[in-house]
């Protein structure tokens, strides 16, 4: 287990972030933290990656920021040096890598692939907001479960449980000014329109922030895809039973509970207790859900 020693300035940053209504401790708890003391992180200079790099540094990690220059803009050649001048006081070193991406069709996708190759497995600063955008983009492309599952939380995507606004608060508290990439405002790119038009419209229609809902849908899709991969013969039954229980109770069942439901339905397990003291058992050709001995729902098998 790595031993982290937060720098002296971390307390001052935490206080500044708190004044913006964000707790550094809360961010740390939701962040996927590596097992080593060094973090390699792709940093574009935008608020998300700047905020995440400073957050990791504040927690005591040695941060190596990898900046990839696509050569798409004349000013991009100087951005690596500019980042280095901004981040040195936080103990963050900057590594510059350059790739060539020709202008033309699918520039956004080709630039992304080139950037990922150049990062060589380094973490990225994608947030829950990015996850929601990816779910919608993949749906628009007709994706299945894997596409809807979007990005997998983990060392490569450590910030998927954080919101973009939270990392912006860290950047402001640190006194940093993010670099502006005109591509992020270019409505020719699908992600820009999803971010600026589709997500706000969906939230307006739902009368709530849909970003957490889309992130949860991605989690469900990843879980379902893993069930299909591990148990192709029972996956449809597992999904059907889980959806039945979730529709009746509102519970979000773990894979262990879902597997137990299948065993009860097959008759290889007599009964199973779900969270909230709910009990599911098979009675002849019915699956019966009860609470404190009182039947609340049943499903024909």
Structural class: alpha/beta
Kindly report the average pLDDT value: 90
Going by CATH, the homologous superfamily of the largest domain would be: HUPs
Helix content: 40-55%
Give the amount of beta strand, in percent.
5-15%
Looking at the structure, what is the overall shape?
elongated
Which second-level CATH architecture of the largest domain applies? 3-Layer(aba) Sandwich
- Counting structural domains, the number is 3
CATH class of the largest domain: Alpha Beta
Number of helices: 12
Number of strands: 7
Question: Care to describe what's here?
Answer:
The chain is of the alpha/beta class. It folds into 3 domains: 9-126 and 162-183, Rossmann fold; 128-151 and 186-230, no CATH class; 232-300, no CATH class. 48% of the residues lie in helices and 14% in strands. The protein has 12 helices and 7 strands. The strands form 2 sheets. A 4-stranded antiparallel β-sheet has the order 4-5-6-7, covered by helices on one side. Helix 1 packs across helix 8. The longest helix has 20 residues, at 211-230. The radius of gyration is 23 Å and the shape is elongated. The mean pLDDT is 90.
Brief characterization of the structure:
This protein folds into three domains: 9-126 and 162-183, Rossmann fold, CATH 3.40.50.620; 128-151 and 186-230, no CATH class; 232-300, no CATH class. The protein has helices spanning 9-19, 24-30, 47-58, 79-87, 107-119, 128-140, 145-149, 164-173, 190-206, 211-230, 235-249, 255-266; strands at 38-42, 62-69, 93-98, 271-274, 278-283, 286-291, 294-300. The protein has twelve helices and seven strands.
